[in-house]
Amino acid sequence: MIDIASLPGSEVNETVFRVILARYPQVSLFERVSSPQDWDVLYAVESLTNPRLRDAVGDIRLVPAEDRVYGDGASWIMAAFTHPPVDVRGGRFNRDFGLYYCSSDESVAIAESSFHRARFLRESRIEKTSQELRVIRAQLGPVTLRDVRHLWGHAIYDPDDYRAAQQLGHALRDAKSFGIHYHSVRADGDCYGVMRPKAVSDAVHWRYLRYHYAQGAIQDVEWLDGSRRNVIA
Question: Total structural domains in the chain?
Answer without folding.
Answer: 1
